[in-house]
2-isopropylmalate synthase (Powellomyces hirtus), 407 residues
Amino acid sequence: MTQAVATSPKDKLIIFDTTLRDGEQSPGVTLTASEKVEIAKQLSRLGVDVCEAGFPIASEGDFEAVERIAKEVGHLMSGRKGGKPMVICGLARAVPADIQRAYDAIKHAPLHRVHTFLATSDIHLQYKLKITRDECVARAVAAVKFAKSIGCKDIEFSPEDAGRSDREFLCQVLGAVIKAGATTLNIPDTVGYNTPEEYGAMIKFLVENVESAKSVTWSTHCHNDLGLATANTLAGVANGARQVEVTINGIGERAGNTSLEELVMAIFTHPTAYPVYHTIDTYQIYHTSQLVTKKTGMVIQANKAIVGANAFAHESGIHQDGVLKHKQTYEIIEPAVVGIPSNSLVLGKHSGRNAFRTRVEEITQNSIYDDILKTDATIFEKLFLAFKKLADTKKSGVTDQDMFALL
Ligand code: KIV
Ligand code: ZN
């Protein structure tokens, strides 16, 4: 395991969720504005700090979705235990038209951020952008200055394909954008090429060598092409990053992005390994995962860490025996901590109100449903009738997944 660089007691780790932007770039996924608003509200309950709501210049629909999130979700208090509203963020290429469009969509939220990006690797400069390194620096600086000139104070800059960029050149670009007004520097391993050692070393090098590095927040953005996104993100945190860019269920371009639930639970299970704390309500993880699965249509594999159907299932006799004797023999996390109820009752068409109520209470405790069900008795009755209807059609009993779908 990567050892954390010892710093002051514990720094806040900013959780930047990009489910609605990079996550929506998953092949075959398109969300309506209303679906995006619903997911954004749940991200706020989960305790996310920054919600990258979309790429406003990409389409009218995306502009509308980002603007609605800024207006309808940006004012809500984040997390069950209070906290401040989420920062609503819009993505923009490093050109004025994109930046203006992103700013027009996000400006309605009390806390808002423009995230602008420009590739810095030679392969992107030569073949995609067809510009020199000097032109790249000038364009990056102009983009940040433009964002500042239209009134944006919270500006994030990403050197796209940083993972394959020349480090000295990265220092030059990043030093220049800090001077121009960038407040967060995000380091994307755009193609998921880095190993944890490489990625951690790159963050350390940049934090130590970029001019005025201490005046900004450093951020990770890792893709999962080699299955290393979570490990790389942890290596980034161990080496000085204090923002992580993640998605629910790890969805995103190609093999996806770092998964929020994996990152958060890795820190949860290793409380002394990383000098950071965060404000994610882990009890909301499973429900958020289910909501994103339902809205995107992207079914997660059964063996997906933390939220997969088999993540807490024990098949072999030896394991079952061990877990019955003491749960921690084969369980490193209590399922309830991520909002997965322990499945002691099998619900079916013969189940009565009492068994049903017990199960509902078990699976909704510490969630938003808790309050809703307590304040309106008619909702429970409606739920019970819907459950009976469903139970009639199911041979193998009503699962917790079914119960969440009903809810
Ligand atoms: O992977 C990437 O480089 C990105 C940038 C737009 C930050 O998603
Ligand atoms: Zn990305």
